[in-house]
Design a protein that fits this description.
Blueprint lengths: L20 E6 L15 H17 L4 E6 L40 E5 L10 H6 L5 E7 L1 H14 L3 E10 L3 H15 L1 E3 L1 H7 L2
Parallel strand pairs: 1-2, 1-4, 2-3, 4-5, 5-6
Helix pairs in contact: 3-4
């Protein structure tokens, strides 16, 4: 494991109020999950995200399923000039589909985003605030893209954040480690999914 930060062994036990905490899962859709390679593959991420979703639903806490997608003509996709563009290819037919391991349930909140982060141009903040949510548990794919972009804005909007490290991954272990070593401890608390499950009251 590459992580140098000791936050996951923090002596302060995690406590979560079910009434004011939401689980926000980023891009755990069939078109994105295969991009998770390290430090956990997509199957491992889903295996840890599914019990989180079940526990939050049982506690009557919101489960937010964020997906990324665009119109058929791609007219709402970002198109700025960059040095390292994503490879151009047609999206598979199952791009937006739920995974069998994490099917949506009645009462889940669905957010469709058209960029990395889940707040800009969506109703995520409205849905959370009108439910009295103050704390977000974040997980998903990819660590340094969708998850980190969402987390940075959540921090700036005043939400408390808990990162479920082992339900989060990406294409590169070093990029994952950079987020968890250098960014996430500055804007939230880093824990394992087992700690989150134990803390949800």
């Amino acid at each position: 494991m590459l992580f140098r930060n000791a936050s996951m062994t923090n002596a302060n036990p995690l406590q979560l109020d079910a009434a004011t905490t939401a689980l926000v899962l980023i891009d755990l859709q069939q078109g994105i999950v295969p991009y998770a390679k390290a430090p956990y593959d997509g199957a491992a991420v889903l295996a840890r995200a599914a019990p989180l979703a079940q526990a939050f639903r049982a506690a009557k806490s919101p489960v937010v399923l964020v997906k990324v997608g665009w119109s058929a003509d791609g007219g709402d996709a970002l198109k700025q000039a960059v040095d390292a563009p994503s490879p151009a290819h047609a999206l598979p037919d199952n791009w937006l589909d739920d995974t069998p391991e994490l099917p949506s349930q009645p009462g889940d909140i669905h957010i469709l985003k058209r960029q990395w982060g889940a707040f800009h141009g969506t109703e995520l903040d409205l849905q959370l605030r009108r439910r009295g949510i103050r704390t977000l548990v974040l997980a998903g794919i990819a660590t340094s893209i969708g998850v980190e972009s969402t987390a940075r804005v959540a921090w700036e909007l005043g939400y408390e954040i808990v990162f479920a490290e082992d339900a989060t991954s990406g294409p590169d272990a070093a990029m994952h480690a950079n987020s968890f070593d250098n960014v996430f401890p500055r804007i939230g608390r880093v824990r394992k999914t087992a700690d989150v499950l134990a803390a949800l009251r």
